[in-house]
Write a structure and sequence with these properties.
291 residues; alpha/beta; 6-stranded parallel sheet; 3-stranded antiparallel sheet; 13 helices; globular
């Protein structure tokens, strides 16, 4: 099995290009799920299940939105990770990234396979809580409560369309947009960005920098930004209309990856071959030997 992992890892590295939101881990390492922590009740009042060594929250849509809004109204510095198959497999293979995911204040099961793994652990009825859908639900609630939100990431063109669509849907929404530079910021530039976000009064910051960059960014900025930081991946593009999202029936049946693959086959086929294969291997190992 480890030889398969090595081969797939090498293929994954060669399949990446500069347009891909994915970064290869600095090293290749798999932590096979053990026999402890499959289902846990943490001291912070979180009920989580383990999916390939990533701790994922088992919770309803109402609980997820209520938790985020409670933190946001209190201006607590928290971060939320949205965990699809790609995130879970990346966390499985990269210890540093796994630490970021498991240090989240909330990690939602994005992707039907991740939610299914939680249901297999006894969390009956666990829904998929995806980044684009969570962002839309929170914007609706924020508009009603006059709670400011902030969008950080993407491009000015995409953010302009996103702002227009969000304000059409939620006229009372108080929203600020920022497209960061496409390079590493200097400490001074980063501090200025933090100041702008805090000065906006935003209670929720949606971060669209791509996985794993956005998760690293929100982990680094917890305690610096007085808001709930949520990495939402391609949600900006979906809601702006610059990228077509998979139909609901495909999302509900765990086939959103297939829609993206069909949209960009030349760029994504090796990535999905590796990610999906490793998820199947890891999930099978966990279900057979992880209890």
């Amino acid at each position: 099995m480890m030889n398969i992992e090595k081969t797939l890892s090498e293929d994954w590295v060669h399949s990446l290009d500069v347009r891909d939101e994915t970064e290869a881990p600095h090293h290749f390492e798999v932590a096979w799920p053990g026999d402890s922590g499959i289902k846990t009740l943490q001291s912070r009042g979180r009920t989580t299940g383990k999916v390939l060594n990533a701790q994922i929250d088992a919770l309803s849509w109402e609980a997820a939105t209520a938790r985020v809004l409670g933190w946001a109204h209190a201006r607590e510095s928290r971060y939320v990770t949205i965990c699809n198959v790609h995130v879970v497999v990346s966390a499985w293979r990269d210890a540093a990234y796994r630490k970021i995911i498991n240090a989240s204040d909330m990690a939602t099961p994005d992707g039907a396979p991740v939610a299914w793994m939680l249901r297999r652990q006894g969390f009956d009825g666990q829904p998929r809580i995806s980044g684009p859908d969570l962002m839309w639900a929170l914007c609706e609630r924020a508009a009603a409560a006059r709670l400011p939100v902030y969008c950080y990431g993407s491009t000015e063109a995409t953010l302009g369309q996103l702002e227009q669509r969000l304000l059409e849907a939620f006229p009372g929404l108080r929203i600020t947009m920022e497209a960061p530079l496409f390079r590493a910021l200097t400490p001074e530039e980063d501090a200025a960005a933090v100041d702008r976000i805090n000065a906006s009064g935003a209670g929720i910051v949606f971060v669209g920098l791509g996985c794993p960059k956005q998760e690293r960014w929100i982990a680094e900025h917890r305690s610096k930004i007085n808001a709930v930081l949520i990495g939402v991946g391609a949600a900006f593009d979906f809601h702006a209309g610059t990228m077509r999202r998979a139909p609901a029936w495909m999302r509900d049946n765990g086939l959103e990856w297939l829609h993206r693959l069909a949209s960009e086959p030349g760029r994504l086929w090796k990535r999905y071959l590796v990610t999906n294969t490793l998820f199947i291997l890891g999930a099978t190992w966990q279900l057979l030997f992880g209890r």
